[in-house]
Automatic annotation (TrEMBL):
Recorded family membership: Belongs to the LysR transcriptional regulatory family.
Alphabetized SUPFAM superfamilies for the sequence: Periplasmic binding protein-like II, Winged helix' DNA-binding domain
Pfam families the UniProt entry points to: HTH_1, LysR_substrate
Name of the protein in question: ArgP/LysG family DNA-binding transcriptional regulator
Any one Gene Ontology molecular-function term assigned to this protein's record: DNA-binding transcription factor activity
Keyword tags: DNA-binding, Transcription, Transcription regulation
Residue span, HTH lysR-type domain: 2-58
Entry-linked InterPro entries: ArgP (IPR017685), LTTR (IPR050176), LysR_HTH_N (IPR000847), LysR_subst-bd (IPR005119), WH-like_DNA-bd_sf (IPR036388), WH_DNA-bd_sf (IPR036390)
Species whose genome carries this gene: Photobacterium swingsii
Length: 296
């Protein structure tokens, strides 16, 4: 049997990204933190942490961390149901959400639970591919991802497609596309994208026979700053159509082309009997049906 305090300590180290942070969070000494982890490793029969900065879980540690998060979720849920205040009295759900879903629609899910005093959300943002990796490593209990592949021990629900369109500022359009959008124009028009995992602009220009590696590209790892970058005429980008539907953005940005690209989104969570996760899942599906394009 794994020890409750040792698993709690592992979670605190991963979330706080250091042994010292875990010690402060648990109100124990750093030495006690190390002793608990050593004891946990003896029980598991393998190392659970790589002592780096920040500490990282090993393959065995990922399995223990995932189990620990699920166990504490169910334990705290039961405590609240029984009105037992042995624990903090709060359920914190760690969910990985890609940046664009968070900007466009996931906050509507969170707002559905604003009248639940004991429930809080710990949102981890990433791109649509690596959100599933956060689920695999045990950092989160659920994830919005573009990867429909089933993870062992998890269930996957299809949510719909998020539509993306190419946009730029009025001045940028006049400077680069006044004669129309073609291969030559796209090769000389700078691109602004979130990070190197963002392949939407690459997919768009490929449709015109352009290799994105030949185009000047700015990497702006912030959704709001990326949008400001485009408004200032520094480059063009692909954004969710849900954002351009905002009347303010319609007056500031030009839709460069009627050609849309789509990203399919899925809800991934561990198979578990948790009423709270079931409630959140129902709201995720309900909101996605109103915000995402559904397959007919």
């Amino acid at each position: 049997m794994l020890d409750h305090r040792e698993m709690e300590t592992l979670i605190a180290i991963v979330d706080g990204q250091s042994f010292d942070s875990a010690a402060r969070h648990l109100n124990i000494s750093p030495g006690a933190v190390s002793q608990r982890i050593k004891s946990l490793e003896n029980r598991v029969g393998s190392s659970v942490l790589i002592r780096s900065t920040p500490p990282k879980t090993t393959a065995a540690g990922e399995q223990v961390l995932s189990y620990a998060r699920r166990m504490f979720l169910l334990q705290n849920e039961m405590s609240l149901a029984l009105k037992n205040h042995l624990y903090s009295g709060e359920l914190s759900l760690s969910i990985a959400v890609n940046h664009d879903s968070l900007s466009c629609w996931f906050i509507d899910v969170v707002s559905c639970f604003s009248d639940h005093p004991h429930l809080s959300f710990d949102i981890h943002t990433s791109n649509t591919v690596t959100t599933q990796a956060l689920l695999k490593t045990g950092d989160v209990i659920a994830a919005i991802t573009s990867n429909g592949n089933q993870i062992a021990g998890c269930k996957t629900r299809y949510l719909g497609r998020l539509e993306y369109i190419p946009v730029c500022s009025q001045s940028f359009y006049q400077s680069h596309f006044c004669a129309g959008i073609d291969k030559q124009a796209l090769m000389t028009a700078p691109i602004a994208i979130f990070d190197r995992e963002d392949d939407l602009a690459e997919r768009f220009v490929a449709g015109y026979g352009v290799n994105v590696e030949q185009v000047k590209t700015h990497y702006i790892p912030s959704s709001h700053v990326l949008l400001d970058t485009v408004k200032k005429g520094i480059g063009w980008t692909m954004i969710p159509k849900l954002l351009i539907d905002d009347q303010l953005l319609k007056s500031e940005l030009v839709v460069m082309d009627n050609q849309s690209l789509f990203v399919e989104l899925y809800w991934n969570t561990w198979e578990q009997v948790s009423e709270v996760i079931s409630q959140v899942e129902k709201q995720v599906i309900a909101v996605s049906k109103t915000k995402l394009i559904q397959n007919e």
